[in-house]
Design brief:
The protein has about 140 residues and is an alpha+beta fold. The chain has a single domain, classed as Alpha-Beta Plaits, CATH 3.30.70. It has helices spanning about 15-30, 30-40, 70-80, 85, and strands spanning about 5-15, 45-50, 60-65, 90-100, 105, 115. A hairpin with a 5-residue loop joins strand 5 and strand 6 (about 115). Residues about 130-135 have low confidence and may be disordered.
């Protein structure tokens, strides 16, 4: 597996209008220059999704994939510097869930799936990303 760190961030907005305001500003905040910089530091993927199975709430999910724990930490610094100053404009609460890929299935195009990883169920993965620092941004 080429991705060694995954983060899923839930953004919960106070209203649909607040969510739409955020989406309208995404490209002016997450500029091509910022995305290129993050890519140079190991961000492999960022995907924004509308969470639809909580109909009475206004939520987005952001999937982040990084090449390494070091890449995750370096990108955290860049996001804190370039992106967090914009966050106060939106009525939202964020929750970040972080993980280390253990088993990954990819569709192989022939109707089947190729599996990477073994699950490593008995292993302790808590030390992979190090301490949960208070300054983490997503």
């Amino acid at each position: 597996m080429s991705t060694s760190c995954v983060n899923f961030t839930e953004l919960r907005f106070t209203s649909d209008a607040a969510l739409r305001r955020y989406l309208a500003d995404v490209e002016s905040i997450w500029t091509p220059e910022i995305m290129t910089l993050l890519g140079q530091h190991g961000l492999q993927r960022k995907s924004i999704t509308r969470i639809w199975n909580h109909a009475d709430q206004h939520k987005l999910g952001i999937l982040w994939e990084y090449s390494s724990p070091k890449a995750f930490k370096e990108c955290q610094k860049l996001i804190a510097k370039h992106i967090l100053p914009h966050a106060h404009r939106y009525e939202m609460v964020t929750r970040a869930l972080r993980g280390v890929p253990l088993v990954d299935w990819h569709h192989d195009g022939d109707g089947g799936f190729t599996k990477s990883g073994t699950g490593n169920a008995g292993a302790d993965h808590s030390a992979i990303l190090g301490d949960n620092q208070a300054g983490e941004t997503h």
